[in-house]
Amino acid sequence: MIDQQIRAFARSLRRASGYVRLYGFQHPLCTDAVDEAARAATELIGDRPGLLIGIVDDTLFIDGEPSGLISLQFNGFLREVLAAGIETLIMTPPVDPDELGQIARLIAGDIDAAPIGRSLRVNAVDLVRGPHDGSPAARLRRSYSHSLDALRSFGSSVESGSAASLDETASVVKNLLEQSLANPAAALLLTTVKSHHEYTFYHSVNTSILSLGLAGLVGISERDQVVLGIGAMLHDIGKIGVSRAVLQHPGRLDAAQWEEVRRHPQLGAEAILAAAAPGEELAAVVAFEHHARFDGSGYPRLVYHDGTHHHHGPGHPLHFYSRLVAVADTYDAITTRRSYRRAEPPSRALQVLVSEAGTSYDPDFVLAFASMMGIYPPGSFLRLASGEIVMVTRPSDDPTVLPTAVVVRDRAGSEVAAPEPVPYADDDIVEQVAASALGIQPAQVLERLPVDG
Ligand SMILES: [Fe+2]
Predict the structure, then answer these.
(1) Is CATH 1.10.3210.10 the classification given to domain 136-373?
(2) Which residues surround ligand 1, an ion (CB under 5 A)?
(3) What separation in Å is there between the alpha carbon of 318 and the centre of ligand 1?
(4) Which residues, including other chains, have CB under 8 Å from residue 393's CB and lie 6 or more apart?
(5) Residue 37 phi/psi, 5° resolution?
(6) 440 and 408 in contact (C-beta within 8 Å)?
(7) Using one digit for the tens of pLDDT, what is the confidence trace for 28-42?
């Protein structure tokens, strides 16, 4: 699989440039990563005489072919590569580790100019900026990528304490809303994209997409959905104020670390409120309340005053935006792999929500969410009695009808290049299969679906 080789190359080069920044390019960790990247590059080139890698806007091209999903997964790294002035790279085998080390230094900002090498040439050709791929999947992907940009820029202004507005966030949310309305099934499928590297930002975009879908379903006006969507997008922005060591801590947190994590709703709400224009304040409420639970548990511990008494605990009136976003937030968190646990399949995440409906989560929103996702949510893989593996692409409007699914692996076990919808019945389903066990990513299938999505 060429995709796997591209990933291996991008991942090791990203690691190498990270090590240049941290420890300098002569550090063994760095030279090891560079060696690995050079091997991955040579393997990627295979028996071709050379390979042209190019980046145009949001998209990575390999020999002129767009790599949609990888572009999205490595969105942050591609931004760094472009910022270092690298638009194209021609690689000739075997790739020389010393030359690749220079590229890693260039990306890290350790040197300014591209070296002239034998096996690597930077910006030796110009990519033709053709018309953008106008497929719904590509438009959604672009919208997702712009959301990541908006999060990074809002995040860094929060970090540096400089004044920010919510204008960029509002505009990406409007675009996400527009693209999701045009293709709701593809939007749900796109939320299966996760990043271990920038977990919080991808999680935030996913939560926003899922929240917008749910908000539309329960009849919230489009204008109000934008504020709700901003809240969902920025609900975890307060994590900027939590140390990396704590956020990436693999095991149980001690009391002090836990205390630090519990500050993120308030830190986020403060940052959003400082940036909010009139009418956008509710976005801060969403961030403040997203870990407060329906039954009054969770954090922060909320106290309200009804004119006579102070109350907390059961019956605390969380804003309904917060209760809605909490459902989407939880679903995406459970379906994502973390350093301390594996990703759960979609149906398992729904089970968790249902079992805590009425205690942790608002039962009405859980019900609406479950009906939006359907019995097998988009991105679920099913093994059929025929031996085929199908992937659910679109929930069914009718609860008695199974969702639309496409064949991704045929009876012989080979991957299907152009997945097509297939009829199937309840009796045909043998079991659900985890995406990780198959090595297929739902969003990768999305890129290959018929335009209808
Ligand atoms: Fe959170």
Answers:
(1) yes
(2) 236
(3) 16
(4) 185, 189, 378, 403, 404, 405, 406, 421, 445, 446, 449, 453
(5) -65, -40
(6) yes
(7) 999 999 999 999 999
Q: What one-letter code names the amino acid at 328?
A: A
**Partners of residue 382 on adjacent β-strands:** 390, 432
Extract the tokens encoding 440. 């297929």
421 burial level (CB within 10 Å; 0-12, 13-18, 19+): middle
Answer for the pair 70, 38: CB distance below 8 angstroms, yes or no.
no
In angstroms, what is the span from residue 244 Cα to ligand 1's centroid?
15
pLDDT in tens, 323-369: 999 999 999 999 988 777 788 889 889 999 999 999 999 999 999 99
Cα–ligand 1 centroid distance for 190 (angstroms): 21
DSSP string, 303-359: -EE-SS-EE-STT----HHHHHHHHHHHHHHHTS-BTTBPPPPHHHHHHHHHHTBTT
Return residue ranges of the chain for CATH 1.10.3210.10.
136-373
Peptide linkage before 93 cis (omega within 30 of 0):
no
The neighbour count for residue 115, using CB atoms within 10 Å, is 15
DSSP string of 73-127, one letter each residue: HTHHHHHHHHHTT--EEEE-SSPPHHHHHHHHHHHHTS-SS----SSEEES-SPP
pTM of structure: 0.90
> Measured between alpha carbons, how far apart are the two ends of the chain, in Å?
24
CA distances from 422 to 134, 186, 379 (A): 26, 17, 15
Q: How far is the CA of 235 from the centre of ligand 1 (A)?
A: 6
130 versus 411: the higher-pLDDT residue is 411
Q: Please give the backbone phi and psi of residue 79, each rounded to the nearest 5 degrees, phi first.
A: -60, -40
Residue 217 predicted with pLDDT over 60:
yes
User: Ligand 1 centre from 130 Cα, in Å?
Assistant: 40
d(CA 217, CA 296): 26
pLDDT band at 23 (very low <50, low <70, confident <90, very high): very high
Name the residue type at position 415.
E
Residue 433's DSSP bridge partners are 381
| Cα 44 to averaged position of ligand 1 atoms, centre (Å) | 38
* 201: nearest Cα among 145, 256, 255: 145
| 113 CA to centre of ligand 1 in angstroms | 41
